[in-house]
Amino acid sequence: MGSYRDARLRLPREDIDLPEDRGCLRWVLAIPLVVLYVPAVFSCYLALAMRPASPYDRLRDDARFMGGFSVFLCLLGLLITITPLYRRTMGRWWFAAPVLIATTAYFRARTV
């Protein structure tokens, strides 16, 4: 008793964000995050590896700077990750790595 137009309106609409189409998009969106997180991990490692000999050693300031730089890079990556495109496409585990790196770097910068 319905017309063709009514049946057409009730058909499910194809979504452009199909899960099987996200594979390549995830790789493309991961590039900026990896570009931010690799230097963040390296600077966190440097902050952890620096062992100042005394409280007046200049290496202390360098370790604090590297820890702060790592936290900055992680926060920048998290700001990118919370955008709607990234939240919809990427998995939630992309939030875990920068939080872990930033927490480690922050505590190292504070306890040097």
UniProtKB/TrEMBL annotation:
Keyword Membrane: yes
Residue stretches spanning the membrane: 27-48, 69-86
Keyword terms: Membrane, Transmembrane, Transmembrane helix
Organism domain of life: Bacteria
The protein's name in its UniProt record: Uncharacterized protein
